[in-house]
Every structure is written in C-alpha cells, then in structure tokens.
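Example record for the data management plan.
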Amino acid sequence: MELKKQRALILCTHNSARSQMAEGLLRHLAGDRFEVESAGTEQTRVNPFAIAAMKEIGIDISSHSSKTLERFLGETWDYVITVCDNANESCPIFPGAAARLHWSFEDPSAAKGSDEEKLAEFRRIREQIRARLETFAEGLRR
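Corresponding structural encoding:
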C-alpha cells in the first residue's frame, strides 16, 4: 500500500531564489514522501544564480517558474513554510494547514560583486536551506 504524500508549500517574497531552491531540494531529498510547491507574495522569475547553484549539486530547477501564492490558497497543505521574513509577515492563513513553519534565510539575490561572488552567496544559502530541510525531513521519519 502506497502512503499518501505530505504536501508542503514553501513561500518567499519573489519566488525566485530561496523558495525555488527549497522546493528543488525537498523534492530531491524526500520526493517520495512529499508533494512540494513554492510560491511568492509577488511573481518575478527564477534567478539564474539559483538555477546555477542547484545545477552544481545535480538538481535541475531550470523548468521552474515563479508563481504567486494566490493559486494555492484553496488547497490543503500539511506544511506551509516561509523562508524569508517578509513572506512570514504577509503570509495569509491557509485553512487546514497542519503546521506553519518559518525559517529565515538571507536573500542571496541581494549579493553584490562579481558573478562569482554572487554565485558564492547562492551556494551559501543553498547549503543552509539544505541543512534545514535534511533535519526537517529526517525528523518526520521518526
């Protein structure tokens, strides 16, 4: 008998970097147990540095698109996870959400400097998100 996947919605302001990387990572780490979506309070585009940082670890998010959270409001979620303070403050109530989690990560899109310096910042945030998601997914196995 196949277990029903838990549903996780990951929110950020622009749905361009942190939430996109988190979506790709959770799907990669625990896609057998989770249905994952990401969205933002505003729609933009997936940041090319986020795509590059994820590609380095074998996760392709190049087909992802930036989405606004309105399309997901009527759905039932087991977890609604905000990954930036702004999204946490403006996150609407999701009826039926079993857990609302907030993990604050710095915005790598704000990085200054050369492309290599910007990519380094995306890598740093990617690794912070990965560590948090590994702990989260492992904790749910118990």
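Summary line stored alongside the record: Strands lie at 6-12, 34-40, 79-82, 99-102.
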